[in-house]
Write a structure and sequence with these properties.
The structure is a single chain. The protein is α+β, with helices and mostly antiparallel strands. It has a domain of 41 residues: YefM-like fold, CATH 3.40.1620.10. The protein is built from three helices and three strands, in the order βααββα. A three-stranded mixed sheet has the order 1-2-3. It is rod-shaped, with a radius of gyration of 27 Å. The N and C termini lie far apart (77 Å).
């Protein structure tokens, strides 16, 4: 595991985070030689798509989606 001082991590934070994500290898951040944080790549579950949005681009709209599904004269509630 790569070890990096907090001052160097602060200066190059974004590039280090991208490197961890790309390589999959964790980085240990130290302060005065003592570990304070461990940067690890995201788990497979965290990077995968959840159930929200999982069917995006799988459906298609056929016909008019704005007008009522049935004709107004078929609705009993509208007739006194």
């Amino acid at each position: 595991m790569e070890t990096i001082a907090i001052s160097k991590f602060k200066a190059k934070c974004l590039s280090i985070l991208q490197r961890v994500k790309r390589s999959g290898k964790p980085v240990l951040v130290t302060r005065f030689g003592r570990p304070i944080a461990e940067i690890v790549p995201p788990s497979r579950r965290a990077t995968g798509m959840g159930w929200i949005g999982s069917f995006q681009s799988r459906g298609r709209i056929i016909g008019d989606i704005v007008s009522p599904a049935a004709d107004e004269k078929d609705w009993e509630v509208l007739h006194p």
